[in-house]
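hey so u asked for the seq, here:
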Amino acid sequence: MTQKLSPEEVVLAWNAAYVAHDIDTTLTYMSEDFVRLGDSTQWQPTDKETWGRTMKAFLAAWPDWSWDLTTITSSGNLVVCEFLEHGTWTKPMELAPGVVFEPTGEYFEDHDADFFVIGDDGLIKEIRAYITNNVERVYGLSARIAALGNAQ
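ran it, structure tokens below
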């Protein structure tokens, strides 16, 4: 018999896979109706499939990416974590077929607070990500993406 994980244990297991760059395993801890909201998507919801595809592209471009869990607290189905995120953009990043951004070789460091909501099925239903956004200041990805949209 498999024992159900607590909300905090689910987030810790998800995080262990994420830090190991094992996106396929992270997806097993996320519900089918998962949604992520954050400044990197201008607070537009991102579904599970899109999140997985984006993270695989991101981690391929930042192979040294990691984050350190500095604080975790939980109450009921809500788990809040703080992280210190860091990495260097050393490889091309393909956001969509034929849309590739070349690396800058620059290092970034961000402070993140992620709010995880665990659903009735015991899986992550929602992540709300609050980031100091140094990755945006260093790389200007939003401006690059906006310019791409204006050029089409």
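The mean pLDDT is 89. The beta strands are 30-38, 46-47, 66-75, 78-88, 93-96, 99-101, 107-118, 124-131.
lmk if thats what u needed
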